[in-house]
Design goal:
This protein has about 425 residues and is mainly beta. It contains four helices and 32 strands. The strands form seven sheets. An eight-stranded mixed sheet has the order 5-6-7-8-27-26-25-24. Strands 9-10-31-30-29-28 form a six-stranded antiparallel sheet, with no helix packed on it. Strands 1-2-3-4 form a four-stranded antiparallel sheet, with no helix packed on it. The longest helix has 24 residues, at about 1-25. The protein starts with a helix and ends with a strand.
Length: about 425
């Protein structure tokens, strides 16, 4: 009898272990189910994606004829049916939804709204229609508060740069160019890294992972060193060049561990690896230049690089799915495109729903955009704003110098 009980327990443990292993090894799921909240029924398609062992839940919630798209990066241990409640609000022809995930009201995100079958973030649409503010009041009474709904701290001053340091998201580092170097801001720290001996207003550096890389510009027409600084730390180091490079140069882009720089005056292209301090000439008049289109390398006439800046990356006008949209700039993640259109409206386009762009926010003008980990940072006039669905839209830094020198003015790094 004891053997039978022991064998039964052993088999039970094996089954539990098998189920655990299958859940761990699973690359995700896609399920469809109905959900009822306050006598209103929704049809939900829930897709779990696993990227670098990190879960991403994408949900398409159908409410009547309206479809709402949501994404959640919280780790629910690959559970299914992660929505525990749906808050709903209507005003005229606008419908807004706010899913509550697994009963966690602290798992905050921007509500989504649909008007005339087009989706908008609540952040954007509530600025256009004041009647939607009642939905914010309703959610706040229930303990659901987006960061941008709280009273923002007054900006503090750092040598002429105004910032809301407490509002900088965790793990975000903002590097602002300041005449001769960068000032880096995070939620816990601020530090200044001096890099140059004279002010530099036009051509500046490039970010490769967490490293800010800039030529050591001087008053001379050429430079002899490349400077490297980790924006999460103090200090810098230099990479000495075997032969000088003209100041009339620009970065083509970053591919993997390498940075690419083109020297207009001398018609030469360089590959810079900051990890082994190697600078290699890969292009000149005899062999032409190298171009990377986001997928593959090709030779290109070196004189093309002198007429205008040739920057590496995909030509999204040729990419099926997004090519139909009238965009100025595109950013791509594993499962989404983000794009700024010619009216300075900023959208998210899920690759699984290419016909349903989500308008997140808009501005009268945008000088520059930087993105990392679904955080979008916008330079507008003299102010940097950021948008993320867990925070809303928040003005974070103001600096008068941005008005006059908005090119390559800042960089953003998310420390994982």
């Amino acid at each position: 009898m004891k053997r039978i009980i022991s064998f039964t327990l052993f088999i039970g443990l094996l089954i539990l272990l098998f189920q655990f292993v299958m859940i761990y090894l699973s690359q995700g799921h896609e399920i469809t189910y109905s959900f009822q909240s306050e006598d209103y029924t929704y049809d939900i398609t829930e897709t779990l994606l696993v990227e670098n062992r990190k879960p991403i839940y994408q949900l398409a919630v159908k409410s009547g004829d309206n479809v709402f798209l949501f994404e959640n990066h919280t780790d629910y241990n690959k559970q299914k049916k992660v929505i525990s409640d749906i808050k709903r609000f209507t005003s005229g022809n606008i419908e807004c939804l706010y899913p509550v995930y697994k009963g966690e009201i602290e798992d905050v995100h921007d509500p989504m709204c649909v008007m005339n079958h087009k989706q908008y973030s609540y952040t954007y649409l509530s600025n256009q229609n004041s009647s939607l503010l009642a939905f914010k009041d309703q959610l706040m009474k229930e303990g659901i508060t987006l960061s941008s709904w709280k009273k923002l701290d007054e900006m503090s001053d750092y040598n002429g740069i105004a910032l809301r340091q407490a509002s900088i998201p965790d793990n975000i580092f903002l590097a602002v160019w300041r005449y001769r170097g960068i000032v880096t801001f995070s939620k816990e720290d601020t530090h200044n890294t001096s890099l140059l001996s004279s002010d530099q207003y036009s051509s500046r550096g490039v970010l490769q992972d967490r490293y800010y890389v800039v030529p050591e510009y001087t008053q001379n027409s050429e430079f002899n060193n490349i400077l490297v600084t980790d924006i999460t730390l103090f200090g810098s180091r230099d990479i000495k060049l075997s032969k000088p490079i003209s100041k009339d140069c620009y970065f083509n882009g970053v591919v993997g561990d390498n940075i690419y720089l083109f020297d207009r005056t001398n018609l030469k292209q360089y590959e810079i690896n900051i990890y082994n301090n190697n600078v290699r000439e890969i292009g000149n008049k005899e062999i032409n230049a190298q171009y990377y289109d986001g997928t593959s390398w090709s030779d290109r006439n070196i004189y093309d690089f002198t007429k205008s800046k040739v920057l590496f990356g995909k030509d999204y006008h040729k990419v099926e799915g997004i090519s139909t949209y009238d965009f100025k700039e595109v950013f791509e993640t594993e499962n989404s495109y983000y794009f700024l259109d010619k009216e300075n409206r900023f959208y998210r386009l899920y690759k699984s729903h290419l016909d349903n762009p989500v308008l997140l926010t808009s501005f009268n003008s945008v000088s520059e955009i930087r993105m990392d980990q679904d955080f979008a940072f916008f330079l507008v006039d003299d102010t940097i704003y950021y948008y993320h669905e867990a925070y809303g839209l928040i003005p974070i830094i103001s600096y008068n110098e941005f008005r006059y020198n908005p090119t390559d003015a800042f960089e953003v790094y998310y420390k994982q």
